[in-house]
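Input chain follows. Return structure tokens only.
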Amino acid sequence: MRVFADMTASKSPVSRFATTPPLGLYVHIPWCVRKCPYCDFNSHATQGDIPEAGYVDALLTDLESQLPAIWGRTVESVFIGGGTPSLFSAPALERLLTGVRSRLRMRPDAEITLEANPGTAEAARFADYRAAGVNRLSIGVQSLDDAGLRALGRIHDANAALAAVAMAQQAGFENINLDMMFGLPQQSCHEALSDLARLLDLEPAHISYYQLTLEPNTAFHHRPPPLPQDDDLAAMQEQGAALLARAGYRQYEVSAYAKDNRRCRHNLNYWKFGDYLGIGAGAHGKLTDAAGNRVVRRHNRRHPNDYLRDPAVPAGEKVLSAQDLRFEFMLNGLRLVEGIDRALFSERTGLSEDWLLEPLRRARSAGLLDDDETTIRPSELGRRFLNDLMAMFLPEEDCP
């Protein structure tokens, strides 16, 4: 098979899959009220009523079609993302989660995250989400400055965001993530830090603090707004990280900060190259076939109407090559501030560590790594030039 064909052509030792990684479930709900000008996710503005019942049926059909690939495995976490999943009613999400539990073996304390938009928040709905089994909320605040929110094209204002967080806390949610952007159009460093300080007053368990970027195929990419200069962006990042640290939030990934025991388990599984099922329009999945010694990626049709017509048939599948596996493992693992366990490379890719030796040597020589015998870890310089570090693991002729 392809993953090992290149390896056996050389005289390098081959590692086989001794076990399968932890397994997560990603559920994509693609609708939103209005497409934000910076958003490059698979989201579609609603044109009327959302077909909740039909879409939940499709999600469960999609899930059932993938069950043979994961028989006997336990799901550690569920992440319901979008779009704006909180546009769905609590009964629809309860039916979805009940259907998932009846079809999958789930860890009793599985982390179940729901993304929510402050513009769609209702106190009763949050309470019902919690009753349905959601135990973690991720709220897309993005800013607590009304001018900043308008510049981002958001449909809520600061008061709506504050109210949404209060509603979630009153509903009994203790594990809440709040998203905040910096580098907004014409934003100063002082304004960015003031925005973050206001967010910290809400004392969420987890904060995603990340820079606004202009992604291809977005309105901002076609009509770029005036963004801060690079020096200002660097100051926002560094001083923001220091402010978060003083408030008791520990950075564990490029843009993720958490209080004790509140790291996002679902995302950590991604970054450690774990497995996940993906169901929903445009959803992606990655599964390890230990018996076949291969890793397979699968993706669904992006448009909801196309997906609804035949949710059990994927848009495409790909068996990852050895070069793909090496790059994707490092692409994810190098995002972790503490680095990634070196032994996980063979465990999660099925490849010999020989595949890492030459790019690790180059990265070390460039001062981009601070690794040792057990951990592959970016240096401070490597974190600043993370894209350059990741590029060193792209497919090249140095592979064994």
